[in-house]
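Two records follow; treat each independently.
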Amino acid sequence: MALEAGITDRQLRHPAVTHLSRDTYLPRALAGDTDARLAAVLLTAPPGAVLSHTTAADLWDVAVPLLPAGDVRVHLTVPPGSRSESRRDRLVHRTLVPEQDATRRRSFPVTTPERTWRDLAGVLPEGALLAVTDQLLARWCSRADLERQLAGRPTGRGCARARAVLPVADPAAESPMESVLRWLVHAAGLPAPVLQYVVRDDAGRFLARADLAWPDQRVLVEFDGDVHRERDVFVGDLRRQNRVVGAGWTVLRFTSADTLGRPDDVVAGIRRALR
């Protein structure tokens, strides 16, 4: 297409141009622009191609945790008969996308939120899939929408994960890693927590709002992301924790290093507290 437009090989080799893959180029100044990369990949994609999987999730503003670092390939789903292959700038999935499973967002062809969920069920671990499901229920889909999508594809890769995760999903979750932590609790067979629980003192005054709570056992669990390392946030966390502990609650706080690196210890700590 570039040559047909009068662009020469020398121009394509210019330092101001970056080579995404075999026949796909982009001005280097736009290399970090997500929409520009998507448009460039779609320009050389086969007819009927739609953005899908984690690329679709990104378009729907859904954060997917636990992804490998550094993989910025665009996910494309193409018709089964297509000869298109994966390249360094794209990962090709070859399967049918019915008309009702595709739409447009920011002018791009993309799988619907429900179809994106079903596709991701085939490639994500349960904790990450729960995080995606929580966000979709909070913003884009009803539980019935996802159940219908699963009923339309009841077999194949990811169906068991989708069935396991959907009953646990809760739109009240407020961060992806909080959802990952909640899946650890569920998978360990521990009682289901109450999300975003408001703790009050004996006089009814507000003390805190906790990520996960077991009110009967007076146990709270918090997931601390990077923002909790900031000085003002850290100081506020300590003051709040002191108030809650003083009111007779047990407070456990975990980071991604705990949730991902020491999941058995996280579960054991919560189990001990609940006893």
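The next record belongs to a different protein.
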Amino acid sequence: MRQGRDILVIGGNRYFGKRLIARLLAAGDRVTVLNRGSSAPPSGAIHLVADRNDEKSLIEALGSRTFDVVVDQVCYTPRQAAVARRVLTGRTARYVMTSTVEVYEYEDSADPVRETAVDPLTVPVDLELPWNDEEFLESHYGEGKRQAEAVFAAAGPEFPYTSVRVAHVLGGDDDFTGRLQHYADRVRTGAPIAVPAVNHPATYIHVEEIADFLAWATAQDFTGPVNAASHGTLTTGELCGAVAAHLPSGEAVFQAVEVGEVSPFSFYRSYGMDNSRATKLGFAFGDVRQWLPKAVAETLGQDV
């Protein structure tokens, strides 16, 4: 049985973050959760309150603490990454950043993309962009994550890090995004579902599986980016079919659009990630089609 570790989780005290914390505590790790005080962590975790954007606040909250692993669930910009890197260098033996499939927003390949498609060492960093502006940040989500990864990659061996590029997450009765509910509402009423004229599939991961993956990643020693996605891809039609199967009536009616806003899981380009690096490192992913009915039922409050 392994020794319990000292692990710091920054933010992420809901959805798959809270599941990660529960797994670490159950494994006997000593977990410290740092956030702005908006929510208390699960029983058994230490709670630190600080604004992760404020370097002085972060240093004061951490005091002299050191950690075996840091899991950063809320690093969205290169400014936040720069602060984390300065404060945590020398305090942790491993840093795990939750990144996103959105780092590949400019890739458009029929084949699932590998981590090498976006090399953080080649990504330019601009700390002067208006990263504190919420509208700018929302519209530059993928860019913020790319540049944050670049800040950590530039540190070299003195800051051992991995960035977990997470596929679109589904499942759980606490899915706060409203994306599956969007489809359920339209299937019930027969309202049209906007999709691109050429609608591409994407990779997904179950909320429990990404929590498992992050917990697993804390115990590994690989560095650099890694894709986290279940095996297989789904189209909007397959998602809506799974939603319709859990509703008493209604059907999916699709409306093709050439430009403009489309429904949440509809894509103008391919959004598939290659998960072979993580698989070779030893993580066993599930198949998206096997867990999809369960994920939809959980979120819509239906029996599996």
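Discussion point: The two ends are 35 Å apart (CA to CA). How would you locate this feature using only the token line?
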